[in-house]
Every structure is written in C-alpha cells, then in structure tokens.
Design goal:
alpha+beta, 127 residues, four-stranded antiparallel β-sheet
C-alpha cells in the first residue's frame, strides 16, 4: 500500500523522517502544500510481480495516526481510501453507522490502531 502525506510547505517533518526513513518527497499538492509518499503503490507491486505487498493496510493506518498526531496540520490518505473511508479511521463510536458486524469489527480495530498511533505522535511531538 502507499500512503500520501500532505503538509504545508516548510513544515518540519523530521519527526516523520526519523520513524519512516523511506519517506519520499513527491510534489506540491496545491500551492503551499508539499506531498510525501510512503510505501509502494498496489499498481507498482502488481507491475513488478511482487508476491505480497510489503506494507500492509494496518501499518498504513498506524502511520496515518502517528503522522496526524505528530504534525496536526498534516493530512494523510491511504491508497484506495476516499475521504469517507479515511475519515472513518478517526471515529471512535460506530453506533450510528449501518455496517455489518464483520465490517464494524474491522473498522473498530483499525480505528483503535489509528488512535493508539495518534497518541504516540502527540507524545513524540511534545519531545
């Protein structure tokens, strides 16, 4: 999977680089925003014939939480997630969502991963 990270131009991203040394600066999203990529896109994995994705979805979820905790003005997007799916990672109470029990359990598990990493990012940012 690939993770896209967007931060305002000039943002100090040392805290991310220390944790994720494979961070690549990609381009500017819009004027005043820099884009970084982590991981490998599904298309690249399929094109090169890799047997498995080197970065599983749960690891991407964890990175999103950490990055958004450590750099509050950052926003992240996991490859294949639209705004709704990406936003659901930040949800804690899924009671209002009409999901199957299996889907609810998966979203709750991913949300817990995100929130745990978000809190780690908050603590790392304070140091």
């Amino acid at each position: 999977m690939e993770l896209k990270i967007v931060v305002p131009t000039g943002t100090d991203i040392d805290i991310i680089e220390q944790r994720y040394d494979e961070l690549i600066m990609c381009c500017e999203e819009d004027e005043g925003e820099d884009v970084y990529l982590l991981g490998e896109s599904v298309d690249d994995v399929e094109f090169w014939g890799d047997d498995e994705d080197p970065w599983p979805y749960e690891s991407c979820v964890e990175a999103c939480g950490f990055i958004e905790g450590a750099i509050p003005e950052a926003y992240t997007r996991i490859e294949g997630n639209g705004p709704w799916a990406q936003g659901l990672l930040r949800v804690k109470d899924f009671g209002a969502y009409h999901l199957t029990e299996k889907d609810r359990e998966e979203w709750e598990r991913n949300s817990e991963i995100w929130h745990t990493a978000f809190n780690e990012g908050l603590e790392a940012e304070k140091k």
